[in-house]
Amino acid sequence: MLSILLVGIGSRASEDDAVGLVLAEEMARRGLAGVTVELWEDRDPLDVAAGLVEISDRDPEITVVLVDCAELGLAPGCWRAFDLDEAELAERAGGPSVHGVGLADGLALARALGFVNPVRVFGVQPFSVEPGRLSLSLPMATRLPSLGTALADELAVRTRRERPSDGEASPGEGAPAEPGRVSGGGGTATRQGRVG
């Protein structure tokens, strides 16, 4: 079984921006085999980069799965799981983000500083990230069970010893809750879905 470090990223002071933290806490409660959970609250790209480099120093082999609220161009409440290669990092860095600066900026900086671990992102399109709102939006809160199931399924796929090649679905891996797809191309496996 492969080991996974699941990192929940977000801010509890901006409504749906907390979804990464809430989902990571749920995975910790479930006690998934092979999965260790960390919460990175209110971190800027420099803090994310430093944290990733620290992970690489501790264990350069562990796969890191980042779960975060993200501007993905999907309908609110939908999710997307994807790998980021070097070309995508360069393209996404400085791009749109619910944080003002992107997670890709922190990842790109971490790579430049020696972060070598495989990384996967589980992003959730927010309904609202209004500052000062200390809880998830009601529509996001109602989707948490389905999002939790999708994330747990994603982690189960990642912890299997033999993983599918990019763009191929694992046995038993299918469309989450509603319309979803497994696609790939350019060396990047993508899985996304709509929940709720």
How many angstroms separate the termini?
31 Å
Secondary structure tally, helices: 5
CATH topology: Rossmann fold
What value does the Rg take, in angstroms? 15 Å
Q: What is the molecular shape?
A: globular
Strand content: 15-25%
How are strands sequenced across the largest beta sheet? 2-1-3-5-4-7-6
Description:
It is a single chain. By secondary structure, this protein is α/β, with parallel strands linked by helices. The chain has one domain (4-193): HybD-like (Rossmann fold), CATH 3.40.50.1450. It contains five helices and seven strands; from the N terminus they run βαβαββααβαββ. The longest helix has 22 residues, at 138-159. The chain is globular and about 40 Å long. The protein starts with a strand and ends with a strand.
Give a nutshell description of this structure:
This protein has 196 residues and is α/β, with parallel strands linked by helices. The protein has five helices and seven strands, in the order βαβαββααβαββ.
Helix and strand arrangement:
Blueprint: E1 4-10, H1 19-30, E2 35-41, H2 45-58, E3 63-69, E4 79-83, H3 86-92, H4 103-112, E5 119-124, H5 138-159, E6 180-185, E7 188-193
Helix pairs in contact: 1-5, 2-4, 3-4
